[in-house]
Amino acid sequence: MGLGGPRAEQTEEHLKREHSLSKPYQGVGSASSGLWDLQGNAMVMTQYIRLTPDLQSKQGAVWNRVPCYLRDWEMQVHFKIHGQGKKNLNGDGFAIWYTKDRMQPGPVFGSKDNFLGLGVFVDTYPNEEKQQERVFPYISAMVNNGSLTYDHDRDGRPTELGGCTAMVRNLNHDTFLVIRYVKRRLTVLIDIDGKHEWRDCIDVPGVRLPRGYYFGTSSVTGDLSDNHDIISLKLYQLTVERTPEEEKRDREVYLPVVDNLKLPGMEAPLEPMSGLALFLIVFFSLVAIVFAIVIGVIIYNKWQEQSRKHFY
């Protein structure tokens, strides 16, 4: 099920099994042979992996053991969220991760805060009281260089890159989400209406993600709950043609960052200063200091001379 549409690049897709998860989930959670680790209350069932059951205070995750070194990729997520709770009496949702650290539980949909990398959140419960312009469930994305905290009380609004409403609970048809990362552009699309059509959700240019991070998905329930089920995660390597300028622009980075994003701590790193520029700055600074000292000595001597004249 590849992506098309007017904005799609001319790409070739290749399924990467070492980063994919599908039935019959062979070896998942196995100490030796598996490619995926289970955490917390996550359980392997015949038709899905249940991150959390429809019970209070549960946390579960599944993480890929193999770091991903692909430059351009697409993650297709087949999921199901369902439970006994009525609207806004269910929670809390789940996250899909591409991060430096793995298997670290925490407060952000069951995983650690201040993470390094990308998080895409399917948030099913509004924590902020004033929700006039936003309807839940809501999908959002966040890129973190380790300095940002996810604001749970405000549903992550201060740090989100974009988002959309997605009515994904208690549906009788399949629900899909796609995260696509091509040429530093992050897009999220959803297929949740049973029509087998992709709908735009998030589109952010200038996203720079390091290679060698891990894919995972996690979920948490609190006072409210839901079944959060992952049916499959399929990662595709995308082969995209680049111009020489794009090759230079898309060189490898070592910290996650979003260009031109005005969030605290998320500015793009400054280019390192050249040796000549540094030398000139130091040289002219020293000249200015020496000049200031000479002027100071001249003024002081004149003041001393004037003082002596007052005494005679």
TrEMBL record:
Principal place of residence: membrane
One Gene Ontology CC term in the entry: COPII-coated ER to Golgi transport vesicle
Keyword vocabulary terms for this entry: Disulfide bond, Glycoprotein, Golgi apparatus, Lectin, Membrane, Metal-binding, Signal, Transmembrane, Transmembrane helix
Region span, Disordered: 1-28
Gene3D superfamilies, per database record: 2.60.120.200
SUPFAM superfamilies for the chain: Concanavalin A-like lectins/glucanases
Segments forming domain L-type lectin-like: 13-238
Transmembrane stretches, start-end: 276-300
GO biological process annotation, one example: endoplasmic reticulum to Golgi vesicle-mediated transport
GO molecular-function terms, A-Z: D-mannose binding; metal ion binding
Membrane topology: Single-pass type I membrane protein; Single-pass membrane protein
CDD domains: lectin_VIP36_VIPL
Subcellular location: Endomembrane system; Golgi apparatus membrane
Positions with biased composition (Basic and acidic residues): 9-21
Protein name in the entry: VIP36-like protein isoform A
Source organism per UniProt: Patagioenas fasciata monilis
